[in-house]
Amino acid sequence: MKWTNDSGGNVEDRRGTGSGGGKLVGGGLGTLIVAAIIFFLGGDPSALISSGMQQQSAQTEQRDLTSEEQQIYKFVDMLAKENIETWTAEFQKMGMQYREPKVVIFENGTQSGCGPAASSMGPFYCPADETIYMDMSFFGELQRKFGAKVTEFSIAYVLAHEVGHHVQTVLGTSGKVDQLRRSGKYSEAKMNRVSVATELQADFYAGVWAKKTDQRENFLEPGDIQSAMEAAAAVGDDNIQKRSQGYVNQEGFTHGSSAQRQEWFMKGYNTGDIRQGDTFNALLK
């Protein structure tokens, strides 16, 4: 993908500050692997916190960021700004005002509005403070453990997916899902399907973002969409279940299969129309 000249994406870089804020302990390596599976692409960190893991202060020595880390900041900042520009324009078309999310880059651990955050949790969106949290080292784990080839655009896809959850928050979708969850109206199996619909809609919004941003900036290059498809396939529930437990249990899906994640991203990309992303009616009939 081509880098644009945009910056000012409301990104805070907490790496190298010496106040990383701690790490989650108490669960062992197995728990951390499970956490990565649960939280990658939109999980709720409060679930892990309530499972008995505790935060332990882990002050890190202050240091200067390397030139590579500084480039990573510039890249994430550029992507965040492109998301702001695209979604501001899309909301204006709907006669609505878009609120900019914040993006925090951290290492090892930090505090979020949803509680302690750790790199093992993967990138996630916290609706309480409307912030996306990313430890970039997780993308290495994504490649090693889940078989995804990490490229610049696969990172762009992940960030766009998390921004998609913010779009859901601004539109009120997340609040409705939370109310439904708290009501106890649905069984666990049906709430899992609601969760899948929520995640697939975020994938759809990521596709819309890619389409609209490319129309404005002409930033896509050959192979970019394919790299997003490979990342989506890698984090499909069926792929993760096969790798972690050796078999697939569809009733346990919370994010959607590899095929579903690819399908809804491509629907967003092909249509570029936010109105076509009603995953809830499509999956909960």
TrEMBL record:
The chain crosses the membrane at residues 24-43. It is found in: Membrane. It comes from the Bacteria. The keyword Transmembrane helix applies. It is a single-pass membrane protein. Residues 1-20 are annotated as: Disordered. This is Metalloprotease. It comes from Frigoriflavimonas asaccharolytica.
